Amino acid sequence: MTAHLNGPTDPVDPTAAGSAGSTGELCGRVDALCRAAAPHLPPGGPVAAVLAAVRLRLAEPGLRIAVGGRMNAGKSTLVNALLGRRLAATGATECTTLVAWFRGGVQNRLEVRRTDGRRYHVPGRPGGGIPRDVTLLGSTREEIEEIVVETAGGRDPSRPWTLVDTPGMDTLSGLDGIALRALGAADALLYVMPHPGAGDAEALEALRRQAHDRMTALNVVGVLSRIDELGDGTGDPWPRARRVAATYSARLTGLLSGVVPVAGLVAQTALGEEFTEADAALLGRLATVPREELGRALYSPQEFLHWPDGPLDAPGRARVLDLLGCYGISAAVAAVPAVAGPAARPLLAALRAASGIDALVDEIQERFVAAADRLRAAAALGLLDEAARTALAGDALAPAARRALDDLRAGVAALRRHPLLRQTELAPALADFAAGRLRLSGPDTEALLRLATGTTTAACLGLPEPAPGTTAPASASARAARTAADAAARWRRLESGPSRVLQRHARTARELCEELYFRAAST
């Protein structure tokens, strides 16, 4: 892996960046390693550049989350929903042909970053966001490395992350170098799939390989993005969506931590700014139509657009279909009596509930935000270790610089022994499990996933968490110590198995359980 300066952070003096300690213990300790090594290295050299990039990245206020998937998967629609504004270009064809970062700013504008290193700003489309026509960016697609979308209003504290929308990939060509660099600059990934199948397993496996095993169940969540298109597209989509999500969560074990179903288009409108009282009135008129007649009209988008006897004219039908799709229209109309009339605010609340987006936000909070310190520190340590190892392999190093790099690598190794960072050493185990090289029983598979993805000692061991705002009693620590000891003993037995792959990963799991035991026993 190489150092990635890509991302939304503007170049600034790294010595002026705030200490990363405020973002977490682990990131603070990584920042300290950088500060200790920097004075002894040649200024402007490759390792110094990596240290500066890492410090800038750690000084950012939140996670970097990439949104990826195969072509036309609904990635940009999901990005818009999570941003609460329609900023990413969407459409029936693949509009996301560029890597796009989204961040708060002082005005609506786009920064174009070219492959030749030049940068310049262009206006966003009205209201902010990416124009559908990439020629409006002032450079050709091949000349653009990435774009940064700035929106007025600053960072939303309810969304403590920076999103990057990546181009769609197919299973044959995978991702180009630009998209891979964007993934390398991200801490976590939302993998979007409209209709899961064998192609998604292949795409995820290819992505994991191309990203040097960085993307596994440790930091990948799957999103079933178009639940309304499952089956024949009629009726309540949620029972089928939940079954499909559960099935593919199991089939893609090791490649992602789970699959969350979302009605992407409905979520985009429910959390966005485009739905008006006039739109609510259109839905109120649809609510006057007998249920069976409306159901026939909503059988397909074409049926609805060419519904001659309905209460809406052609522009009205096109408007609500663009906002909500057939499922969203049906859900909104069903909510009209419950919200005492076609008013925008209560209808948006009903649409938000119908979209499933809150379950995804909860998953992001639990899997990514709660683990932000670990995810960001692990990514930074990988960059530091590779940069130091590469430099030490060369000959043109002063003795002081060589000692500093040796100390840096020793510090990286010591910090990686922290229990939460030991989890990242299980990423190869998850990758081998997904590829069929590591075979485990059902209970051992569940234990491995808990160890690899848990954000607390209790979560890693499958124990109940203490109630919010309370301190775990001494009995809970004693129980955690016993459970960790039992788990370590179980993995120790597996170390004597016939498979070298199993032996290696069982040893890592056992060592992590022992670390958890000592931490629990000492509290």
Largest beta-sheet details: 9 strands, mixed
The helix fraction, in percent, is 40-55%
If strands are numbered along the chain, what order do they take across the biggest sheet? Answer: 4-3-5-2-6-1-7-8-9
How many distinct beta strands? 9
The share of residues in extended strands comes to 5-15%
Low-confidence stretches: 1-5, 10-22
Rg to the nearest angstrom?
A: 25 Å
What is the typical, i.e. mean, pLDDT?
Answer: 85
What is the SS-derived class?
A: alpha/beta
Keywords:
523 residues, alpha/beta, 9-stranded mixed beta sheet, 21 helices, 9 strands, 49% helix, 10% strand, globular, disordered N terminus
Describe it for me?
The chain has 523 residues and is an alpha/beta fold. Helices cover 49% and strands 10% of the residues. It has 21 helices and 9 strands. A 9-stranded mixed β-sheet has the order 4-3-5-2-6-1-7-8-9, sandwiched between helices. β8 (220-224), α6 and β9 (259-261) form a beta-alpha-beta unit. α1 runs antiparallel to α15 and α7 runs antiparallel to α12. The protein starts with 24 loop residues before the first helix and ends with a helix.
